[in-house]
Fold:
Amino acid sequence: MVETAKRREIAVTKEDRAFLMKLFGVTNQTIYNALDLDKEPTYVRSRIRKAALERGGVVMVTLPEMETIHTADGRMIQRFGNGAVLTFYRADGHGELWHKGKLISSHRHVGVMDIFALQDLARNLK
Structure:
């Protein structure tokens, strides 16, 4: 599976962060690391995460920005900040990767996992 550049964390208020620091007797950096769900769970991180969620913390996922448009004629078009454009056609299942007006690649029978891989490829074009 291709990983997208994403970040998972538990979002808490400033007051809850201070409460967690006092409750566990740890520094702000320890709380920051515990709330970053991409970091390996340890005993202390797991306890802090559980307490944060019980106090109303919310799991947030941050992904790189891209514009996605679904058209009436069955296309999904994704535009990236670097000039890359992915177009997927529902009718026949193929997809195309364009960069600055030039066709980079064309793919037949594109599946969901293929879309993730093509998004990574598009995002990294220069």
Summary: Residues 7-62 form one domain. Residues 88 and 95 are 4 Å apart (CA to CA). The longest strand covers residues 84-89.
